[in-house]
Structure formats: structure tokens, C-alpha cells
């Protein structure tokens, strides 16, 4: 597994797409926060209110899309470059190959979430002062990390779509956008439906004060995560090249 | 608090032990796999290799074993190849002797069984004799070649006037050229030039090349030239005959190589390999250019060994 | 001797209702070059993919080194090097980086394996040129370097000369020959060009519309390819004499077991027989062996032939 991950890391060298996705994920919150700082319009919101407002742009929209993009790219490229044949004739099981990819993707996703957390804390420190930041650091951190992780696990079906689509790009991208759309629209769903659909339960369960059935939401997220993972591995294992 | 710390320490220790156990187990599995592969190598499969991850603790051991196996295999291959080419040679030779021998005996048997009488019988005897002589010539060539091949030939260097000697060799062929209606152009410098060279080897080289023009070339024109150039002796033998095809050209100096794949054609396939060996023995070079249906050019270059001045 | 490195039994591949490989049983023997000949779409690539476990088998069986691939992948894949269709590499990385990636995943046999593999195929080590700007010839060579990285026993090469210029083809061909002759590798190679296979292979399998029409050694096929009259007599010497005196030909050879080959096929068989009988050379066989590989392939593929 070590070697596999090392190889995946080697593949990412000089990779423009990963670099631009990462930069985008960092520049976006920085820009928003910078505008806030220069406008000085902060008294409107409490510190958590500000964090939620920021999340509605970055974490609801941008991050899932970027993450889905990266995952699609990691898998789809092996098909378009025909490297899949060389990978599959290596003495490594197909399951491991796919898991290796997913680990790389998860690492990227988590790293980006942590970067985002750092940026938000920095911004909050400047806007609200360090004392206020200390007071609500735990709340901010748990919110952002929870949001990020739940997004990560509910995006596993993208891996399945990416395996099935092979050289195509659009199906999995469309899926990502649909998932994100559902996540946003979920805020206006009825309580039960919102908790039933995994992608809408993510924000419902993360943002405090939402109408949600926690058990149902957790269950649906778990089922979605495992279903995506299982189907991706299963399809990859039985795929004809 | 104490309990907590102890608990932590114990948990960490457990993890470390588990990791070590896993590591040991992995190494053991790798060694066992390596061992089965080495068994296969020992059983004679020299193509088997130990493949390990660069970071594995057994990597350097496996790399060393691979190196030894590859070396052994290369040596083994050399032996096998020598053996194979020897066998090929033996088969090919027996083949080359059987056909003319069958033909020769055919004539003799026809005489003995009384199929022919009188003048025809005389004719048959003459043919049989010629065939026997051809066979003798072939066997002689073969021995000469074997001697060359095994490196037993000793080169005797003598001081001779090279221009004079070249003229002498070529002029012996003039009657043959005329008989076959071949126009010839011989250009050898008039002056004297004493060099040290093995006479018989040089004669043999030129004879073989000229003979080839007659037997294989179907030429109407031949040009032979010799000159001293840049401290080298250069010979050129050029004809306007059938030429040698591009596919054959790289192989003509190989032993027993015959261009015409239809068998039963003239030649032993040894002539040019003898030439090549002799040229090598004289520290010279030979190159060939040929265009199909246009002609062939053999170019020879020998170092000019000027004899020491004797007072 | 049953020393097959690859053996397939009744291998079949169906896509829906179309059968693209039908009951193919090939036998690739150790140390030999097996040429799989077939036109485009005959099922060569599909067969190779099934052998390599890249494509699921509809029915039948594949045995590699006497074992089935399933459950033995970890043991068998290291012993095989392959190029299937176009050589696949990461376009933004250099050849060296690409090989390093695959060396990392597959393990290596020596410290500087990547460097040596590149040297063997004549590509520079550690240069700056990304794979995407390689010429087709260089790409193909990198594919070969990747296949021989671990000095495998078995090479599976799917149309390795596809798209190369004549010089490149000759180079690759010479290289594959040397892999077999000098390194004793077993090679399964496919091509849609008859001469390619004829020049390279020791054994040959002809695939046509997914069916294996013929499996034979090249030597046997070449015998069919020559044009000569084969005779078997009791006295070679008398026969030789007849050939020279009566039929005026020198173009013959005396073989073992009192048989002879006459390459002068213009000779009339009736006349030949009469002449041989008249001197008492005791003819027991007289036949014309004339076939031409290409005609032969045309015949077995049902007239259409192979490019
Ligand atoms: N995924 C697929 N679905 C349907 N037919 C296929 C598929 N892959 C290959 N084929 C068909 O299988 C046949 C054999 O293809 P292939 O093995 O690539 O032939 P070759 O390599 O000899 O040119 C072709 O007719 C092709 O159309
Ligand atoms: Mg193909």
C-alpha cells in the first residue's frame, strides 16, 4: 500500500489541474474574507453567523464541486491515458488500486478543509479579535471539520460513476453538481425528506438549528458512503478493459 | 490521572507491538516467497527473478541474487549458443557433402552397371573425376576455413613488391575473363613498393573475390585496382553483374551463408567467410557495396607495413 | 513435452449476443515466439486481454505457467510483461518518471532497473521531455521498456510495431528476436501483417473472426511455402545421375532417408518418373510441394487473405 500511495503521489507531480483546484479552494475564502475586512461591515453578524455565511459560499458550493472534480480527474485520467492497463497488470489487487486513489482524494479533501479552517480562523481573528476567536474556536473548528468530512463521505458515489464512465468526464461532473444542488435545496425540503436524502442531510445535520431527524440523517449518510464505496470497488473489480 | 497515563502508555505500546508484529510477518512472507522462487531457479528456470519493493528490508539481498542469476544465465547462454552453432554447422556440412557425393556415385554406378559404353563411358569417367575434384576442392576449402576459424593459421610475413605481386595474381585470371567474355580493366601502379605481407593469404583473398565474380556475378565487365593511399594499401574489385540484394548483404561474410535460397546452386558458402577471416588476420578491413542488377564493389584496405631497411 | 507457458482452452468472449472470440485454444511454449495473426477486429487484443485477466472470460479457461490467473495474480503478474494496444503513460511526466511510477507499484529486480530498461530500448534517462511530446516510435519503445522492466519470463505484445516506420519496425523486430534468442523469453505477439509474423514467430496461430483456424510451427508452414518436387528413391546416386544427364538439372539436394528435393519445378513429373524407373532408381514417392504462405492463408481464411 505504501508503494501504491507513493506512486500516486509521483503521478501528481507537475499536475496543473490539482494545483489549480487547490489554489481555487484557497483563493476563494481569502477573497471573501478580504472583502469583508475592507468593507468593515461586520457588526451585522455574530462570529458564528459570519462563519455560516462564509460556509454557504465555500462549503456548500465550491468545495464539493472541486472535490468531485479532483476525484473524477484522478480516476478518469487512468482511462484516457490508457495507463489503466499498466496499472491492472501490476501485482496489486484492483481493490487496492482504487482504495489508493480514494485515499489520495480523501487526503486532498481533508487538507483543503484544514486550510479553509486556518483561513477562516485567521479572518475571524482579524475581524473579531483574538479573544472572540478563542471563545468560539471549538465551535468553528467542529463545524468546518464536520461539514468537510460529511461531504467527503457522501461524495463516494462519484467514484462509482467515475469508474463506470471510463473516458467520459461529464456524467460524474453532472452528478457532483446535482449532489451540491440537492445539498443547497435541502434547506427548503420538508424535515423528513431532507433527512432522508444523504446530500441534503449533510448541511441539515451540521448547521445548528435546522429541522432534521438526526438518526435518519446519520443513517442515510452512512448508507450513501458505504454504498458508493462498495459499488465503486465492485464495478472496478468486475470491469472489462 | 495515573490510570489515564498508564492506559495511554499501554495502548501506545500495544500499537507499537502490533506494528512490529505486522512488519515481521510481512518480512517473513516476503522471504518465503523469495525462497520458493529461488527453488525454481535451482530447478533450472533461469528466467525467474526476485521482484521486491525498493524499500523492502530484503531488497538488497534479492537484488544480489538476481544479479548472480543473470550472470549465470548469460554464461549458460554463451555455451548453448556455441553448441547450437556447432550442431548447425555439422548438419549443414553433411548436407553439402551428400549431394555432390550422390551425383558422383551416380556416374560411377552408371558405368559399373554398363548403362554407357564407348565414348560416352569416357565422358562419364571425366565428369566423375571432375566431380571428385570439386569435392576435394570443397573439403580443402573446408579445412582451410576450419583452421582459420580455430585460429590455427600462422601468418608468414614476407617482403615483396606489392604492385608486382598484385599484377601477377590478377593476370593469372585474365584467360578466365576472356573465356567468359568479360572485359577487364586492371590498374596497378608501375613503381616498386616493398611491403611486408603474407603472400598466400593475400592471394587467397583476391582469388576468392575474383572467383566469385565468375561464378556468381554474371558480369560483362570487371575492374580491379590497387593503389597505395594514406599509408594504406587499397584494393578494389568491381563488377557490373547481378549484385547482392539488400537483405542478403549484411550476411554475406557469415559462414555458410548462401544468397540464393534455392539449393543445389554452386558454392560452399565458405569463400567470403574465409576472405573475412583472412582480412581480419592481416589487420585489414573489407567493405562491400552492391546494388541489385547493377553490380558489386568489394573494397579492401590493409595497413602498409614497410619492411625495415637492411643494410 | 507439455511445457506451455500460456495455454487457453476453449476461450470464448461474448459481448451480448456477438461472439468475438470463439473457442480459442492456443499453446504458447516456453522459449518460443508465438505469433497471433489476424486481421483488424479478429479478436487478437480481446484474446490477450482475457489471458492477462483484463477482460472477463465468457467461457473457457486460461492457464499461465500451469496455473490459473484468478487468485494467483500477485504471483503471476510479476512474471509477465505486456503492451496491449497503445502504450499508456502519463502524458505530463517524462519517460523516466513514468517508469519510476510503475517500478514503484510493481517492485524491481535491481537498484537501477529503470535506467537499464531505458538504456536497453535506447531512450535517454532523466531527460526533461514529457511523454506527450514523444514520437510514436519513442512511445512504443517506452512501452517495451516498461514491459521488460522486471526481466519477465513471458512477454505479451499486442501489435508492437503498429504505426512505426520501416526502420523502427526492423529495430523492434530485431529486438524481439534477441529477447527470445539471447534471453530465452517466451513471447506472445500479435499482428495483422503476415510478413511480420513470418519473420519473427516460431509458432503461429491464425485468428479469423474470433476462430483459431490453424495453430502450427513456422517451420512446418515454411515447408508448405517452398516449391519443389519431393521424390523418394532406393538409390540417390542413380537418381542424381538421371537428373543431371537426362533432365539436365543441377538444382537438387539429396536429403536423409533416401529422399531428394528438386527445386527445378518445371520438370514434367511423368517424364521424371519414367527416367527414374528406366535406370532402376526405385521411385516410391513423387510429389510437388508447392504452396505459398500467402496463398495458404488466403485458402484457410476463406479467400480473403491477410494483408
Ligand atoms: N467492448 C466491446 N463491445 C462490443 N464489441 C467489442 C468490444 N470490444 C471489442 N469488440 C469487438 O471485438 C472484436 C475483436 O476486437 P479486437 O480483439 O480488438 O480485435 P483485434 O485486436 O484482432 O483487431 C471486434 O470486432 C470489436 O468490434
Ligand atoms: Mg488489436
TrEMBL record, chain C:
<dbReference type="InterPro" id="IPR003593">
    <property type="entry name" value="AAA+_ATPase"/>
</dbReference>
<dbReference type="InterPro" id="IPR027417">
    <property type="entry name" value="P-loop_NTPase"/>
</dbReference>
<dbReference type="InterPro" id="IPR003439">
    <property type="entry name" value="ABC_transporter-like_ATP-bd"/>
</dbReference>
<dbReference type="InterPro" id="IPR017871">
    <property type="entry name" value="ABC_transporter-like_CS"/>
</dbReference>
<keyword id="KW-0547">Nucleotide-binding</keyword>
<keyword id="KW-0813">Transport</keyword>
<protein>
    <submittedName>
        <fullName>ABC transporter ATP-binding protein</fullName>
    </submittedName>
</protein>
<keyword id="KW-0067">ATP-binding</keyword>
<dbReference type="GO" id="GO:0016887">
    <property type="term" value="F:ATP hydrolysis activity"/>
</dbReference>
<dbReference type="Pfam" id="PF00005">
    <property type="entry name" value="ABC_tran"/>
</dbReference>
<dbReference type="GO" id="GO:0005524">
    <property type="term" value="F:ATP binding"/>
</dbReference>
<feature type="domain" description="ABC transporter">
    <location>
        <begin position="6"/>
        <end position="234"/>
    </location>
</feature>
<comment type="similarity">
    <text>Belongs to the ABC transporter superfamily.</text>
</comment>
Amino acid at each position: 500500500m505504501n508503494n501504491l500511495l507513493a506512486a500516486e503521489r509521483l503521478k501528481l507531480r507537475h499536475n496543473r489541474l490539482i494545483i489549480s483546484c487547490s489554489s481555487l479552494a484557497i483563493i476563494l475564502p481569502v477573497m471573501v474574507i478580504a472583502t469583508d475586512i475592507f468593507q468593515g461591515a461586520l457588526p451585522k453578524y455574530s462570529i458564528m453567523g459570519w462563519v455560516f455565511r462564509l460556509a454557504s459560499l465555500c462549503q456548500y458550493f465550491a468545495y464539493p464541486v472541486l472535490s468531485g472534480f479532483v476525484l473524477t480527474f484522478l480516476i478518469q485520467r487512468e482511462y484516457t491515458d490508457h495507463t489503466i492497463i499498466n496499472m491492472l497488470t501490476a501485482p496489486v489487487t484492483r481493490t487496492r488500486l482504487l482504495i489508493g486513489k480514494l485515499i489520495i482524494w480523501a487526503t486532498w479533501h481533508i487538507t483543503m478543509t484544514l486550510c479553509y479552517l486556518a483561513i477562516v480562523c485567521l479572518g475571524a481573528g482579524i475581524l473579531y479579535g483574538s479573544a472572540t476567536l478563542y471563545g468560539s474556536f471549538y465551535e468553528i473548528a467542529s463545524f468546518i471539520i464536520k461539514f468537510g468530512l460529511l461531504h467527503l463521505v457522501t461524495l463516494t458515489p462519484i467514484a462509482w460513476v467515475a469508474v463506470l464512465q471510463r473516458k467520459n468526464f461529464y456524467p460524474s461532473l453532472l452528478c457532483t453538481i446535482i449532489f451540491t444542488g440537492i445539498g443547497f435545496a435541502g434547506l427548503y425540503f420538508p424535515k423528513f425528506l431532507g433527512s432522508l436524502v444523504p446530500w441534503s442531510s449533510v448541511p441539515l445535520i451540521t448547521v445548528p438549528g435546522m429541522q432534521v431527524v438526526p438518526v435518519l440523517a446519520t443513517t442515510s449518510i452512512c448508507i450513501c458512503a458505504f454504498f458508493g464505496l462498495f459499488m465503486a470497488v465492485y464495478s472496478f473489480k468486475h470491469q472489462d478493459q | 490521572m495515573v490510570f489515564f497515563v498508564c492506559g495511554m502508555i499501554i495502548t501506545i505500546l500495544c500499537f507499537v507491538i502490533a506494528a512490529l508484529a505486522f512488519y515481521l510477518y510481512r518480512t517473513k512472507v516476503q522471504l518465503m516467497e523469495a525462497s520458493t522462487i529461488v527453488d525454481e531457479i535451482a530447478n533450472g528456470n533461469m528466467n525467474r527473478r526476485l521482484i521486491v519493493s525498493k524499500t523492502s528490508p530484503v531488497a538488497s539481498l534479492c537484488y544480489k541474487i538476481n544479479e548472480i542469476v543473470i550472470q549465470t544465465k548469460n554464461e549458460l547462454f554463451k555455451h548453448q549458443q556455441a553448441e547450437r552453432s556447432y550442431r548447425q554447422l555439422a548438419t549443414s556440412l553433411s548436407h553439402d557433402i551428400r549431394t555432390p557425393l550422390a551425383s558422383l556415385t551416380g556416374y560411377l554406378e552408371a558405368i559399373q552397371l554398363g548403362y554407357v559404353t564407348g565414348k560416352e563411358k569416357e565422358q562419364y569417367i571425366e565428369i566423375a573425376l571432375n566431380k571428385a575434384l570439386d569435392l576435394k576442392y570443397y573439403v580443402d576449402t573446408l579445412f582451410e576455413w576450419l583452421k582459420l576459424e580455430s585460429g590455427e593459421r600462422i601468418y608468414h610475413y614476407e617482403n615483396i613488391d606489392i604492385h608486382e605481386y598484385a599484377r601477377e595474381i590478377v593476370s593469372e585470371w585474365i584467360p578466365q575473363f576472356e573465356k567468359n567474355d568479360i572485359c577487364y580493366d586492371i590498374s596497378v601502379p608501375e613503381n616498386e613498393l616493398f611491403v611486408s605481407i603474407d603472400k598466400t593469404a593475400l592471394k587467397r583473398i583476391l582469388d576468392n573475390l575474383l572467383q566469385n565474380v565468375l561464378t556468381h556475378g554474371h558480369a560483362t565487365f570487371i575492374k580491379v585496382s590497387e593503389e597505395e593511399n594514406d599509408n594504406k594499401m587499397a584494393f578494389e574489385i568491381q563488377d557490373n553483374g547481378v549484385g547482392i540484394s539488400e537483405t542478403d548483404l549484411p550476411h554475406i561474410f557469415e559462414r555458410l551463408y548462401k544468397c540464393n535460397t534455392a539449393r543445389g546452386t554452386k558454392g560452399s558458402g565458405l569463400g567470403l567467410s574465409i576472405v573475412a577471416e583472412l582480412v581480419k588476420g592481416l589487420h585489414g578491413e573489407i567493405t562491400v557495396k552492391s546494388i541489385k542488377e547493377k553490380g558489386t564493389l568489394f573494397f579492401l584496405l590493409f595497413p602498409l607495413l614497410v619492411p625495415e631497411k637492411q643494410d | 513435452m507439455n511445457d506451455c507457458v500460456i495455454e487457453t482452452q476453449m476461450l470464448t468472449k461474448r459481448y451480448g449476443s456477438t461472439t468475438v472470440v470463439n473457442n480459442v485454444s492456443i499453446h504458447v511454449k516456453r522459449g518460443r515466439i508465438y505469433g497471433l495473426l489476424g486481421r483488424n477486429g479478429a479478436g487478437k487484443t480481446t484474446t490477450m486481454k482475457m489471458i492477462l485477466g483484463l477482460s472477463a472470460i465468457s467461457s473457457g479457461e486460461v492457464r499461465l505457467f500451469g496455473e490459473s490467473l484468478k487468485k494467483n495474480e500477485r504471483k503471476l503478474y510479476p512474471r509477465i510483461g505486456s503492451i496491449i494496444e497503445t502504450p499508456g503513460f502519463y502524458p505530463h511526466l517524462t519517460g523516466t518518471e513514468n517508469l519510476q511510477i510503475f517500478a514503484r507499484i510493481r517492485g524491481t529486480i535491481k537498484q537501477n532497473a529503470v535506467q537499464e530498461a531505458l538504456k536497453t530500448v535506447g531512450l535517454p534517462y532523466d531527460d526533461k521531455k514529457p511523454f506527450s511530446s514523444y514520437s510514436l516510435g519513442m512511445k512504443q519503445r517506452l512501452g517495451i521498456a516498461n514491459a521488460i522492466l522486471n526481466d519477465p519470463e513471458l512477454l505479451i505484445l499486442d501489435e508492437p510495431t503498429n504505426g512505426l516506420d520501416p526502420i523502427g519496425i526492423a529495430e523492434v523486430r530485431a529486438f524481439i528476436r534477441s529477447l527470445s534468442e539471447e534471453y530465452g523469453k517466451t513471447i506472445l505477439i500479435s499482428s495483422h501483417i503476415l510478413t511480420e509474423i513470418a519473420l519473427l514467430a516460431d509458432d503461429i496461430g491464425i485468428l479469423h473472426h474470433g476462430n483459431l483456424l490453424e495453430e502450427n510451427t513456422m517451420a512446418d508452414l515454411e515447408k508448405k511455402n517452398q516449391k519443389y518436387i519431393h521424390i523418394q528413391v532406393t538409390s540417390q546416386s542413380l537418381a542424381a545421375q538421371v537428373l543431371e544427364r537426362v533432365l539436365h538439372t543441377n538444382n537438387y539436394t539429396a536429403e536423409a532417408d533416401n529422399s531428394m528435393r528438386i527445386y527445378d519445378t518445371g520438370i514434367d513429373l511423368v517424364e521424371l518418373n519414367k527416367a527414374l524407373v528406366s535406370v532402376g532408381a526405385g521411385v516410391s514417392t513423387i510429389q510437388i510441394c508447392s504452396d505459398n504462405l500467402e496463398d495458404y492463408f488466403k485458402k484457410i481464411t476463406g479467400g480473403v487473405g491477410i494483408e
